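Supplementary Note 3. Input sequence used for the single-chain structure prediction.
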Amino acid sequence: MKLNLFSKALLALGLPLLLGVSCEEPEPEPDAVPLPAELKAYVLFQPGTHWIYQDSATQQLDSVWVVSTKLTEVRQGGLYSGAPINKYEVFEMRTRSSQGGPDQVFGTHRLCGANISDDGDENWPCWVVTRGESLPNSTADVGGAYVFPYIIVRDRARTDFLAGGMQPYWHTRPLALGARTYPDVMEVSLPRGDASQGGWPAYYAWAPNVGIVRQRVVVQGVPHTRALLRSRIVQ
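The predicted structure, written as discrete structure tokens, is reproduced below.
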């Protein structure tokens, strides 16, 4: 059967569209993103950040702002499998409360390395790896030479994070926290060892353009959950 010019024109226009519909695959959603700067290890708050919390234990409001933070890398010697050996870090965050009283200092330290002692006790490498070796989407470390090994997959909890690392969970759907709902929430659980030191958060949730919207701290073995009511950045 012969085709007239009009039929040929329709075929010429329709065939690419048909091929495009049948062959073109949808662009996959990225399954890994760099960890937001607010979630870099120890950098939970920046000086000048003002938070108003309602403590779940006391139901009282408390206005808290960060006075100062300090991260000190005391010792680091050599590399093993791309990770520092015998790296000792100290982090300190000083906060002030509207309820008065002395400044509160939250601190934690971490000693890690690659040495394995004769008695079988393993001292695992730190949680940093060289950029590009295995985790190109990781977040840069303080010095820039190493990165935190975070590749975050939406709606799937990580089960392979290194000892001493944080456990992130990135929600696709908006998440209700208290009386508010936030999009693209990142929930992070910290290691048990960090949670036990000086009221350091054992869990927190981060929302874009808002910051930390909920955190859980353990004080003398008792968990306290605080939900963010409002926040502002003091410039």
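The helical segments are 5-23, 192-195. Residues 28-233 form one domain.
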